[in-house]
Amino acid sequence: QYDEELTGTNGTTYSYVDEGLEVTETQKNAVDGNNIVTTLDYNVQSIIEKCILEYNEEKPSKNTAVVVADPSNGEILGMASYPTFNLNDPRKLTGMYTDEEIKDMSDEEYRNNLYSLWTNYCVSESYEPGSTFKVFSFAAAIEEKKIDMFKDYYYDNGVEYVDGFKIKSWKKGGHGKQTFLQVLENSSNPGFVEISRRLGRETLYSYVKKYGFSKKTNVDLLGESSGIFFDFSKYNNLENATTSFGQGISVTQIQMIRAFCSVINGGILYKPKITKSIRMPFTNELIYEIPTIIVDDNIISRETSEKMRYALECVVAHGSGRKAYMEGYRVGGKTGTAQIAENGVYLQGQYILSFMGAFPMNDPKIALYICMEKPHSLIQYGGTIVGPIVNNVFSDVATYMNITKVNSELEFKYTWM
User: Fold this and answer.
1) Across the chain, what does the average pLDDT equal?
2) Using CA of residue 312, residue 315, residue 321, residue 323, what is the dihedral sign?
3) Residue 99 pLDDT > 90
4) Which residues, 6 or more positions from 109, have their beta carbon under 8 angstroms from its beta carbon?
């Protein structure tokens, strides 16, 4: 992205001979490239790299990717993926594949595997997000006053029907009578079908667009994908229902973390960035500050954002995100388990597991999103597999950032309570 800034200009020496055969030599000095100051926090970057490497050394996945952002301004504090390549020897697959596997690869397979290794999963790969997407439909329902998460109830008997199609709960027989807060805590798909009905096609569709899905965030990194969403003319009741719980829509990690930050920061959608400034070589004098850009300052209201922080903290304290819980710290988040689809067919037993979280929830300093594609594990639930990695990352970050503990979870009094 900033190659021209960094490269500088080569120096040259040339000479010419005049009519009198006198030789004149001219030298043009080299000009050093400028310096780039990134938004990356060295300690945060080191922590996430260490945590995903430790997990994958024991139980390797096809891909594990993490992005960490500052919710208050959209700056990327850390971004890492596994497997990765050796920057000093980028054309070798050793370590990712056995010698036997490499030997059996055709030239095309070898090349494609290299391209896959070089890709930045956090911005270039799109996939179905699964239940982490429920954060956005839930926030829309609160904002539009379609649900009261404390007073409104939904009875989950394990299944809902939409235009003749059956949508089942992950729990056989369902969760029974629940408040809508418990619908989120338990990640009840049938409960979100009801939320999609209350919102209606036009409203939910408009929120998905408003959050920025199906278009690039324009983060200053190359190779960004835009993801995929339905054309409204083909967006029927079934698509509306499945979109509410993250199925059928295709997203990128950078889109998800950006939208998530807007839900927890008071409703402000920032353009994500990974560069702070461009500076002169040697003197470090400022040439250009990369501006903080607000794309939309009213995605949801501040009150809805407060309610969402409370709800997400409940998910970690009482619901599917319990593996990320840290005593004394106000952690919130949402888990996801999405079946992988290829050529329109869902693959049996192959999933992308994820966790989207933040802390401390009364004043979020860190937002994190982890995706794990095809993990080597018999258990295939985002909360169970990815939750402990989130716990490890947050524990180390809390120590590094010196975040103060509180007496108990959910102690903070929100303005609407």
Assistant:
1) 91
2) positive
3) no
4) none
Tallying the residues shown for the chain, one arrives at: 417
User: Exactly one of 131, 188, 196, 305 is catalytic; which is it?
Assistant: 131
- Grade residue 376 by pLDDT with cuts at 50, 70 and 90: confident
Given this model, what pLDDT does residue 17 score?
85
State how beta strands 275-279 and 165-168 pair: unpaired
pTM for this structure? 0.91
| Rama region for 187: left / alpha / beta (φ>0; ψ in -120 to 50; rest) | left
SS3 assignment, position 395: helix
Q: End-to-end CA distance of the chain: give it in Å, rounded.
A: 46
Instruction: Kindly write down the DSSP assignment for every residue of 16-72, as one continuous string.
Output: EE-TT--EEEEEE--BPPPEEEES--HHHHHHHHHHHHHHHHHS-EEEEEEEEE-TT
Query: Where would I find the H helices in 176-264?
Result: 180-185, 189-199, 201-210, 237-244, 253-264
**Residue 392 three-state SS:** helix
* Euclidean distance between CA atoms 60 and 161, whole angstroms: 38
Closest by CA to 356, choosing from 261, 271, 272, is 261
Pairs from 212-219 (Cβ < 8 Å, separation ≥ 24) = 212/255, 212/258, 212/259, 212/269, 212/295, 213/249, 213/251, 213/255, 213/259, 217/252, 217/254, 217/255, 217/258, 217/271, 217/272, 218/271, 219/76, 219/123, 219/254, 219/271, 219/272, 219/273, 219/274
Check if 131 is active-site: yes
SS3 96: coil
Alpha-carbon distance of 81 to 42, in angstroms, equals 16
Q: Which two tokens stand for residue 181?
A: 């807060």
pLDDT for position 61? 87
d(CA 234, CA 230): 7
